[in-house]
Design goal:
The structure is a single chain. The chain has about 240 residues and is of the alpha/beta class. It has two domains: about 120 residues, Tetrapyrrole methylase, N-terminal domain (Cobalt-precorrin-4 Transmethylase, domain 1); about 110 residues, Tetrapyrrole methylase, C-terminal domain (Methyltransferase, Cobalt-precorrin-4 Transmethylase, Domain 2, 2-Layer Sandwich), CATH 3.30.950. The chain is built from eight helices and ten strands. It has a five-stranded parallel β-sheet with strand order 3-2-4-1-5, with helices on one face. Helix 6 links the parallel strand 6 and strand 7. Helix 7 packs antiparallel against helix 8. The chain starts with a strand and ends with a strand.
Amino acid sequence: MPILYIVATPIGNLEDMTFRALKILKEVDLILCEDTRVTKKLLAHYEIKTPTLSYHQHSKLTKINYILELLKEGKNLALVSDAGTPGISDPGNKLIAKILELSQSARSYALCQKDLKAEIIPIPGSSAITAAASISGFPMDKFLFLGFPPTKRKREKFFREVINSKYPVIFYESPYRIIKSLRDLRETDAKLNAKQTRNIVVCRELTKKFETIYRGRIEEVIENVKKNPIKGEFVVIVGK
């Protein structure tokens, strides 16, 4: 039975790669990449010569069908994102859902010329969510992850959900919108929480050379983030 491996890759520091992930990437027939240029840097570092194929959120149906055909032919594939664990804020789960859908359809209704029966195996490793949660200092036995804030519609609803959550909230943000999002968070907190004692943690460039952790009340963190070059991806944790 063919296998699709969901392989976590480093979120910054290449030494965070696991031995098992390296073994899988060397053995599979093809690696599906969010961006082949990014993945090839990782593969070159570990002298892995497995061929790669681009697969991302804008991939057309023909690309997905091609991947499905490879599995039907018995090929073993690995899916990686540019950084971290696939399926979290990227299109990995869309591909998995399609495989499961076709597998179920083939068994139940014989809709496919050749049944698609593929095993899906996770190869765990780095994740920005767990890395940030582990150093937050907040009680993280329960938390809510909300991905990236909407850029336009439903943005106010998003930040209301953050502030009203019973548990700490984790979300991602790009360098282009981090200040705007922190300001929107502050304004929403001011509307819903008169005391405004809420603390947050903002993680920048986790595991990379210029990793920075900002802690404090929202207003304090905004001012500190503005002092440094606003580059790289951000993880925001909002405490209770």
